[in-house]
Structure formats: structure tokens, C-alpha cells
């Protein structure tokens, strides 16, 4: 096996740089190299020289420049030196032609080793529960990307909150894309590891409505504060604030304000009813919709849960003067 002979100090720096760029621990680097942690420990501690294929991968993962490394050929135990391999293969930096040839050979050898960006796995929190509700409502997950699509005209003021939340949880900058086929804007973050993290958190990939396990993750129900945050974002995305008018035969109108949530998922709807019950609310199901009404319940919702989407809070405030549980008699207008 052809090996590369480096000083202990240079070999450690090479391994350390790869570890820092991959943003993982020593065992994680060993996984990228497809070797055992024990073998990799012997290399980064300088106990053994590096196999050539390992050196190529580490050189790719790191930012350390190795000039004129000593190459030990297959009979390296008998031959001291190894510059003949450099001249033969042109791997490492002897001449301009050799550097070009070496670069092309390295690319060919390591092109199938994809380095995916790392994303933090956030701890359970109110912020994460709110993000989960957003993804259940307006989100989508493909094999290597997440997206959130909201109304461009109606929800534009909600977008800064979403961007800030994603940045806070995953240290990622969401890109925005204005749809040309509809009045909508999509926020996107690409990353295979981000998708893996979200699947581990209980979200689903692909068409949500076709997934049997599309539901609120069980960990959200472990805390009332998580439940409140998740309900808030579900209403922010797939809910609305509406005006309600009940007319008597006498013509007297009883005006009020309600909150409605809509979903095609029976499982999600059932879980949401239970979540409202846990918090002391009573919602009325009707087809795909859930209705929250009554002054006491709406006041409780506004005070304890509230909205992160400015569209809903503004709509609620605008309705209060004329529909805030008013008795209206047209005869006296």
C-alpha cells in the first residue's frame, strides 16, 4: 500500500483542519474516511504514516497545503524516499504540468466523496415547536431542501419573522423566491443534513397529505408552552380570524369574532383538538375546519397564545370596534 510520510506536526494539522471544516468530532472524520476511529486516532497522533487514499481525502477536506510530501511506495519498508512516485504520477507540486496532472487525478479519486453542510440539531424549545407548526402548515420537505410558501400580498410582513426564526434555529440564511404563477413567495434552505434533522424531529418528507404519519410530533405535547407555540404557528399559516354575525327574527344582530383552522388531515385535526383541550379551550369541528369562538375563549387565545403573523393581529384589531361581541339593532341606525 502506497503511503505518504509527513511529520507528526503536519499530519496532526492536516487531520485537525479536516475535522474543523467538516464540523464534527474525531469519530465523525473517521466515518467520512470510512475507517475505524482507532485507525484514525493512530494517524492524527502521528503513530503511523497515512495511506495515500486517506491522505487524498484529508487533503480535500482540509485547508492545509502540503508541499512535496514524501511518498512511500508499496515496498516502502525497503525503500527510503519515494520521489520516484511523484515523478511517475505527477501528484504533488513538482512542476506546473505535474501540479495540473496531480490535481486532475485527485479530483477523479475524490469526486464521489460529497461533503454535505452541517446544520445544528436544536434542542426542544418553544421556538422549535413554532417552527414545526409552520412546516406542518405551509412547509414542504424534499430530499435535500426545505421550503415555506406564503402569500406574497397577504403574508409579506410575516416573512422577516420566518427568516429570523430559521437563522436562530439552524444558523442558515433562507433564500426567497417570488412565484410567477401565483401571488406567493417561497423561502428555501438547501441541505441534506438539515432535512435529516427535521425528519428526526418528527416531520415528514414529500407530499404531506399522502403520509400516514403526518401529524404533530409527540414531543410537542410534552409541554404546554410547546403546545401554545405550535398552535400559534398552525393558526398563523393555515388559520384565519373571521367575523361572525347571528341574526334574530327581530332583526337584532349579535356580532362576534372567531378563529378558524383548516386542514385536510384527519389525524392532524384530531391531535389539534386534543392540544386545545389540554390548554382549556373547546373547539368545534366542522368538516375540515375547527372553530374557536366565544369572547372568553378568544380573549384567552389572544392573551395566552397570540399571533406571530401580523396579518391576523391586525385583522383582529380592525374587527374589534364593530364586531367585538356587539349587539346591533338596524332599527336604531
Write the layout of secondary structure elements.
Layout: E1 3-5, H1 8-22, H2 26-33, H3 37-44, E2 50-51, H4 52-61, E3 70-72, H5 83-89, H6 96-110, H7 126-138, E4 139-141, E5 145-151, H8 152-155, H9 159-170, E6 175-178, E7 184-190, H10 192-200, H11 224-238, E8 239-247, E9 253-262, H12 266-278, E10 284-286, E11 289-292, H13 295-304, H14 310-323, E12 326-328
Helix pairs in contact: 1-4, 2-3, 7-11, 11-12
Verbal overview:
The structure is a single chain. With 333 residues, the chain is α+β, with helices and mostly antiparallel strands. The protein folds into 3 domains: 3-110, 434 Repressor (Amino-terminal Domain) (Orthogonal Bundle), CATH 1.10.260; 126-213, Homing endonucleases (Endonuclease I-creI); 236-330, Roll (Endonuclease I-creI), CATH 3.10.28. Helices cover 46% and strands 17% of the residues. The chain is built from 14 helices and 12 strands. It has helices at residues 8-22, 26-33, 37-44, 52-61, 83-89, 96-110, 126-138, 152-155, 159-170, 192-200, 224-238, 266-278, 295-304, 310-323; strands at 3-5, 50-51, 70-72, 139-141, 145-151, 175-178, 184-190, 239-247, 253-262, 284-286, 289-292, 326-328. Strands 8, 9, 10, 11 and 12 form a 5-stranded antiparallel beta sheet that branches. Helix 2 packs across helix 3 and helix 7 (126-138) packs parallel to helix 11. Residues 79-83 and 90-94 have low confidence and may be disordered.
Name the descriptors:
333 residues; alpha+beta; 434 Repressor (Amino-terminal Domain); Endonuclease I-creI; 5-stranded antiparallel β-sheet; 4-stranded antiparallel β-sheet; 14 helices; 46% helix; elongated
Amino acid at each position: 500500500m502506497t503511503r505518504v510520510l509527513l511529520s507528526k506536526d503536519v499530519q496532526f494539522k492536516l487531520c485537525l483542519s479536516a475535522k474543523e471544516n467538516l464540523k464534527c468530532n474525531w469519530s465523525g472524520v473517521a466515518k467520512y474516511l470510512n475507517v475505524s476511529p482507532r485507525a484514525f486516532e493512530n494517524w492524527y497522533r502521528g503513530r503511523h504514516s497515512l495511506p495515500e487514499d486517506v491522505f487524498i481525502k484529508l487533503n480535500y477536506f482540509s485547508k492545509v497545503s502540503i508541499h512535496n510530501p514524501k511518498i512511500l511506495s508499496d515496498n516502502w519498508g525497503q525503500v527510503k524516499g519515494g520521489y520516484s512516485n511523484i515523478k511517475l504520477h505527477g501528484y504533488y507540486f513538482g512542476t506546473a504540468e505535474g501540479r495540473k496532472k496531480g490535481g486532475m487525478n485527485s479530483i477523479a479519486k475524490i469526486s464521489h466523496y460529497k461533503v454535505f453542510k452541517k446544520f445544528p440539531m436544536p434542542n426542544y424549545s418553544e421556538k422549535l415547536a413554532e417552527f414545526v407548526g409552520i412546516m406542518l402548515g405551509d412547509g414542504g420537505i424534499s430530499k435535500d431542501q426545505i421550503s415555506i410558501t406564503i402569500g406574497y400580498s397577504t403574508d409579506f410582513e410575516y416573512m422577516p419573522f420566518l427568516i429570523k426564526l430559521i437563522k436562530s434555529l439552524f444558523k442558515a440564511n433562507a433564500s426567497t423566491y417570488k412565484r410567477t404563477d401565483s401571488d406567493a413567495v417561497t423561502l428555501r434552505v438547501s441541505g441534506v443534513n438539515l432535512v435529516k434533522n427535521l425528519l428526526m424531529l418528527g416531520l415528514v418528507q414529500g407530499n404531506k397529505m399522502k403520509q400516514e404519519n403526518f401529524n404533530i410530533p409527540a414531543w410537542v405535547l410534552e409541554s404546554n408552552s410547546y403546545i401554545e407555540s405550535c398552535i400559534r404557528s398552525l393558526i398563523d399559516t393555515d388559520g384565519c380570524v373571521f367575523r361572525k354575525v347571528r341574526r334574530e327574527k327581530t332583526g337584532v344582530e349579535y356580532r362576534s369574532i372567531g378563529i378558524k383552522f383548516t386542514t385536510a388531515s384527519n389525524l392532524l385535526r384530531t391531535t389539534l383538538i386534543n392540544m386545545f383541550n389540554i390548554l382549556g379551550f373547546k373547539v368545534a369541528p366542522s368538516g375540515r375546519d375547527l372553530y374557536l369562538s366565544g369572547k372568553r375563549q378568544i380573549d384567552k387565545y389572544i392573551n395566552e397564545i397570540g399571533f406571530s403573523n401580523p396579518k391576523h393581529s391586525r385583522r383582529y384589531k380592525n374587527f374589534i370596534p364593530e364586531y367585538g361581541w356587539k349587539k346591533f339593532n338596524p332599527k336604531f341606525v
